[in-house]
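Subject: design request, 80 residues
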């Protein structure tokens, strides 16, 4: 099920209001899809995980960090 950004934001707010929840950090598109398939309702992002998965130190530029993050969210139907 694909949700709009507005729907994802509303669900993310609901998760915060209901108490604690686990927020995993995918490092690429495959891990984002895997975590979604396991039932997680929200995802965070990890600059270190992305950097290490591409063989780089965690000293990525802001532009590269934004680019890597932008690749994750269109692939997931859950909260970014």
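Subject: RE: design request

Done. Sequence follows.
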């Amino acid at each position: 099920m694909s949700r709009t950004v507005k729907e994802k934001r509303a669900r993310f707010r609901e998760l915060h209001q209901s108490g604690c929840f686990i927020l995993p950090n995918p490092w690429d598109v495959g891990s984002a899809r895997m975590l979604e398939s396991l039932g997680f309702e929200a995802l965070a992002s990890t600059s270190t995980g992305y950097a290490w998965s591409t063989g780089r130190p965690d000293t990525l530029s802001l532009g590269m960090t934004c680019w890597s993050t932008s690749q994750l969210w269109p692939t997931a139907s859950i909260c970014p």
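Residues 5-17 form the longest helix (13 residues).
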